[in-house]
Amino acid sequence: MKRLLQIELLKLRNYRAFWILIGLYATALVLTLWFSESILNSILDGGPTGFMTLDVDSFPDSWHYLTYLAGFFTYILMVIVVLLVSSEFTYKTLRQNVINGLSPMEFLWAKLSLVLSLSLACALVVGISVMALGLLDDGITTAGWMFGKAGFLLGYFLQTLGYLVFTLWLTLLVKRSGITIGILFIYVWFIENIVRAIWSDKVAAWLPVRSFNLLVEMPFSALFKGEILPFASTTEYAVAVGYILLFFSMSAWLLKTRDL
Amino acid sequence: MENVLSIRGLTKRYRRIVAVDNLDLEIPSGTICGILGPNGSGKTTTLGMVLSVIHPSAGSYQWFGKQPDTEVRKRIGAILEAPLFYPYLSGLNNLRVVAKIKGVEESAIHRKLDLVGLSERKDSPFQTYSLGMKQRLAIAAAMLSDPDVLILDEPTNGLDPQGIHDIRALIKQIGGTGVTVILASHLLDEVEKVCSHVAVLKQGKLLYNGTVDGISGRKPRVEVGSEDLDALKSALEGYPGVESIQRSGEHLLVSFSQTPDNAHLNRMMFDKGITLNRIATRNVSLEEQFLEITKGKA
User: Fold this and answer.
1) Quick one: average pLDDT of A30-59?
2) ipTM of the complex
3) How many domains, in total, are found in chain B?
4) Domain ranges in chain A?
């Protein structure tokens, strides 16, 4: 696995488009997390709940708010993954990798190690931000209080990984970047929401993207109603992890059976 | 001689087309072997299959007498169709990727860059290379693990005369070191100049396999001329070993069952009162032979 990740990192070495996109992503993510409280409150000031002040930086609910907000930026990561994987087809470098002595499965593990690293790096950035913001806001409190809802970070990590493994599979299937990005966002933004609207949220909970989203559910509407949102249930975790395994297996099947 | 590659009944069918049809082929170790055939004859598909990037519909192949796996592919250096690299990476970084895949030390990279004369441009992105440089980088990549077999697919395609010359010289230089070279080409001239063995493919079928010199009984021919061609012709008819006499412009083209002694032939004709104004041995070119082989069959 270490060798495979090294191969992937060598491929990125002077890939400017990748570094620009990842830089934009990181900047946007960090800035949003750090200024989310003032941004949200300035929006709310003019809104129907103008009397309310949100405190998204304080422990322990900050784990929930901030991982939820961070989830919006995963779309940028998905585009990056599409570009990285589809270029292996456009330049036929996947073919050359295999000719050079990489097995198609090793190629897949290499790409998986890359999306796994990206997901871990994101979780790390978000985790550090939550800790720093919380400590600035609240000062040091008890560990139980501080980490009481840190479980959302795991949800966020799996959500990111799920999105990216889904993207990986779709790109391997379609091969072309433009079409993949089109299908991806039509599916994520429309298809699943249409299913949700026509049938019910219970049905949609079994769909892949919704199952990833449920790991860190939208906190604000519940907040306005004065409810407390619980962690995702074990079933919800199981469905999301099941989809990750499914997309990985389907990717493996594609690479093993198709001519390269 | 041991075979580096044995192919048995290899077949690739696409929906309607049979790209490679029940191919049997053996490539002996240490040779420079050409795979010759017009475009679309199945050369690249065959190489794709033995390099594990195309799944055969039927048949099998063995490298070095073993079932193919990734370890075997690391002993092979191959370029299929065109040099395939990451365009935004420098030549050096592209070779680093290859070295990491093949498990080769970093120091080998610089030796191979020297071999193909690319050391000065190693830090430029691949996309800024000329076609000749791209081909040379591909050869460097293929040679990186000091492979036992080098596979090249149309390596001089699209190059200028200087580029073609450089690549051919490089192939011969590499072939001279004992590496088995498999060279797919539609250029007869190229195969004749570079290869010792040749397999001729047409529409996925093997038409000839053997040495370039022995290609389907190349009969020795001698071109002779004199003032009176009719007299010459009747005089030649009694000469031992003559198989056929054809008129070819101002001369006669005489096929022999074995290479004749031209001095003896000249003396005999002179004794019969015929003065030859031309006598020259003509080899049947591979091109003529190729057309002969591919005509009618398949």
Assistant:
1) 73
2) 0.87
3) 2
4) 2-257
